[in-house]
Queue: 2 jobs
Job 1
Amino acid sequence: MQLAKYALKRLGAMVLLLLGITFIVFCLMYLAPGDVTLMLIPNVPTNEQAEILRKQFGLDQPIFMRYGRFLAGILQGDLGISWIDRRPVVPQVLDALSYTLRLASVSLLLSTTIGLIAGIVSAVRHRSFVDETIMTVCVLGISTPVFVTGLLLIYLFSYRLGWFPTSGAGSWKHLVLPAITLASFLVAYNSRMMRSCMLEVLGQEYVRTARAKGLRELVVLGRHALRNALIPMVTVVGLQVGLLLGGSVITETVFAYPGIGQLVVSAIAARDTPLVQGCVLLTAGGFILVNLIADILCMTIDPRIRFA
Amino acid sequence: MNLHGKRLLILLALAAALVLATSPSLAQQPRAGGTLTVITPADISTMDPHAGYGFSLRVYANVFEPLLRKDEKGIIHGHLVESWKFLDPTHLQMTLRKGIKFHSGTELTADAVKFTYERQLNPANPAVNAQFLRELNLRIRVVDRYTLVLETGATTAVLLDLLAESIVGLIQDPGEVKKWGKDFGLHPSGTGPFKFVEWVRNQYVKLTRNPDYWGGAPYIDTLIFKVIPEEGTRVLALESGEADVLFETPPSAIAGLRANPKLVVSRVPTFRDLNMHLNTSRAPTDDVRLRRALAQAINVKAIVEEVVTPDVGVLSTGLFNPTVFGACDVGFPLYNPEKAKQAFAELGYRPGRDGILAKDGRPLQLSLLLNPQRDPRNPEVAEAIQAQLRSFGVDVKLRLMEFATYAKMLASAEGDYDMAFLGHGITTGDADSKASHFTRANMPPAGLNVPRYSSPELDNVILAARQEMNKEKRKELYCKFGQIYRDQVLGIALYASIRTTTTWRHVNGMVLHPDEWYPQIYPKVWFGPKN
């Protein structure tokens, strides 16, 4: 009951938050120099021609009218029509989101499993050769720019070895290289995070108590240490889910992967306001939802965290 | 050259002749089959030519066709039209080829042409690129099933060039347009050598051969345009064999690709050229003496040779790429460091303590506006100009803007720039498309007269050239146009663009056309054996 009430309260806040986001995006798109007619008309539009297009898109109306009409549309579940290709926004965004979700889930799976295992191993074998090696690899992972990792992987596995396609989407093979690219950064981040959380917990008195009770090391680590060390990790991974949902522009661009990141960047460049709004609204909604789920998960793992 | 070198040359020539004579590719007959994959940096926006822009245009030409077409040598041929004649300077009668069918099976008739042009010009919803047709004040009269008469508002020397232009006159299937309405872009039907199969957003467009194509069915079965936004990935996709054709090869990759014997790297002249225009509408560049001093201070030749490199562009001596009709050497570049120095001094500019020239306490600071993406070496060229002008004491601020902002600034009423790069891609291959920007009528915000200069003399020359039917006289008028631009130093000519295209060696029958957009059509392409 308490949980339901908490979730409802958070969902209410989410609506307000989304409203604020749409307003900010609307203002930013309004303030950005240039408009969609510059992109649509080759060379430079004659004024008359641009006016016809502006009228079609409602760009001749005052900003508050336009924003009001946009909000009215949302209430009817209609995010409008893209100005560039004159097709409805929602299916386009959902399509791109589905690609992003696929990529995000694979790379998240990779980055959490490998990251957690590497972190735990480093913590348990603290200051050993294994620890040093893992941490060195992590520094490399964090500090290599994604496009470098991406292009190196393409060079090696697509061009030299021919195992995977260089770019595109459609089959599981298309997912491998972009997923590894995205994960390489997150693995590094997660394992460092996991290591420090684990080290902190391992220094706690209840761990010493557990060992003193004569529990097997595996039980000490698994039941007593890990469960406590995981709490901050849930929040971190939850944030990463949100980040991945927003699409990773660079990885998607390098691999020509048709996700939401590429869609929103091209929409911004074309000043296609309805499409930008659609992308931002749906990804922001997803981000907030995932964070809510992460918070609820945290409470389930750690009963000490209470609903506030 | 010494005797030894000469002998070597002769030997090489003999060897080359031998190779050519015995080369299997000469004896080979074109083979049918295969999938040609062409890389495109950005996705199409729709398959409906009414609303398409940017890279969409490269796909359209395979599905839709115009009445006339200009070949890579600049000669106009009848395409859907069998013959044409001018009844008088403003009436053009055209006769369509008989028996041409749209992909839907309907026959192409004069009514379809009229329908397409009127759809493009529909005042309530004009085609995004209807501008050319609109300027012609076109009226179309159907005489019979295969004959129509086009009436223009005024005598236009470039009427045929415009009709052969790569964007606007692609004939669409009226039955299908009416049937699908707004969704025609998802169900396109034209007369072209390829039929539309599918478009997967941000991934690829797939076309299949039209076995009934009136010009002879294509050899290849499937034509794919694959979207790859990242430069490095494009190169690797080509090299790994996932794609067969890469237009606009990144300059940094050219040397590596040339070294690969399986690939052919071709330098293709284009209709495009790049200028740096100077803003004549505000101080200090409103003074022609200062504009001339700036032009004399920039060593364009060195920049073109060292920075631009021959794979991207060659030195311009006039305002048009030499491939364009009307191109004329007007004596660019104007580089003359002695005179530049002298001119700055005569204008009253004295170097300040920081080395920057100043007059009446105001330093000589100029802004240079550019879009880094459109021409590959833009930022580097701008930096070179900045460094060269700095050595004369002129302080240049570079303003690199993304495209929408850049376009807005160029076309804004205020014109907040002193100097601006502008590439002119001429789709007609005729000087008029570029020259007409420099009229009074095209002063921003109405048009793209970037130097913001106009004079009755300049207007007269441009308009006279547009109406002059005698080719030699037209050429002279464009020379005159170039001379006025040079004398007034409305800017400087930087370079004539080269496009470097890379294909696999076993891809035969590619036509590399100077028009960047349109004639990338593949009805005669076939695959030889891969080795």
Job 2
Amino acid sequence: MGGLDDLYQELILDHYRRKRGEGSLERPSVAVDQTNPLCGDEVHLELGIDDGRVIALAHTGQGCSISQASVSMMSEALTGRSLEEALDLVEHFRLMMHGEEPGDEERLGDAIALEGVAKYPVRIKCALLGWMAAKDAIQTYQGNGGPEHGEG
Amino acid sequence: MGTAATIDVTALRADFPILSRRVHGAPLAYLDSAATSQKPTAVLAAMDAYYRQTNANVHRGVYELAAEATARYEAGRDAVARLVNWPREGTVFTKNASEAINLVAWAWGVRELRAGDEVLVTEMEHHSGIVPWQIVAEITGATVRFVPVTPGGELDMDALREMLTERTRMVGVVHASNVLGTINPVEEIARLAHDAGALMLVDGSQSVPHMPVDIAALGCDFFAFTGHKMLGPTGIGVLAGRPELLDRMSPFLGGGEMISNVTTEGSTWADLPWKFEAGTPPIAEAVGLGAAAEYLMDLGLEAVRAHEMDLVEHMLAALGEVEGITIYGPRDPRARGAAVSFSLPDLHPHDIAQLVDQEGVCIRAGHHCAKPLMRVLGVGATARASAYLYNSHDEIDVLVRALGTARAAFAGR
């Protein structure tokens, strides 16, 4: 795609076509909705949390390739992490997208491919959508008195 | 120049310097005039000359420069009033169309609407025709209701007639939809509104730039439009209001210029239209908008409309050949303006717009400030290509080719 190779890397298109974590949970611990007011991208995110850890994550929604691929990558990167680790990773991703930090491939996994989106300011919000939803979900869960560190 | 019925696009494009730009190595194909229009040198020169030669504050100064500035500002108003056939004392300059609608909502609505009253708008309204009424309804206890849109993208006139009751106080309708292109029968709706004892507000942001609009003939009470979509600068819009209504209304924004006398006990208001223009107005912008109005009148809005109907016909035909495409809005060029929204099954509007940008094509993607309409269409977003007097068949062909390239690139990997 010529000059858009940074934006539409193979990995991104792969996640777009085959979204990991798409669907819903039988008994989610928390569910949130997030939309990108500028363009209509939307995500419905459900987390299964146990023992202070994200044990399951499912999402549905519609939107551009960047937003959908990013949600898919996020679901892989956050599943299995403790709530604290997850929030840390969301913040790291956010800083990467704003060009304030280089991406840590080990922690981000496939989501490192989104680093190039930072060059397209209008699309940054697309990439952040799912991650901000995850942050909202975790903080909502914690705010509602959800047990944090293995209190059961 | 009224007899010249056709537009010579090649000659006309020379008036618009930006059109010779290149983007990503390709010629600019600007198909987003529904978002904002490009400006002819006549408008740019008028604003530049104003600042270089006759800049001063208006309505106040005694010196020659101030008199000239005032004359230029008011001449801008006169040109706009002539363009739409409205008396100058009812031609109020605002910041944009959104502010014009807010003016009516706040200066009329807040004081006139009571609990149980209804404001009737439509499902195809731009957010500017919805949100001000929602805000004012919340304050006053009135209700906002929505005339539905048919699957063909037109207003359900039977529903409209049913929804017009003795409770209806105001009807607000876009003259032409910025998403569907639909041109609504606002003259007929104004009659129906008045029969029901309601006032009528029309948003002509997408009509005034593109076709002859005679506000007096339409019969509405308020008519809003904006400068930057009609070859004028940003920062200036127009509320055309019935002088007898504006006279009875309280002011919108208070401050200097809109007063007659100010004491510590209270103030009295200036005559129309200045009663609704608080503070230093956008003087250079009014000069620019006046120049835009003159440019359009010289060209002839009939010729502009004919050119756009021809472009729309080509757009609908060319886009119609794209496999799997969904095109929204009426198919008859006479029933619609040149804003064409579409979607593809395999490529989100964002990605469409991003990819065709590589070929120099500017189109819009998103909800177009019409989220209720998006819900009616069952989508989160559409792509939209909109043509104006300076566009050509070639540019539409470039868009269609770029769509093909985009899909292949996305699928091929």
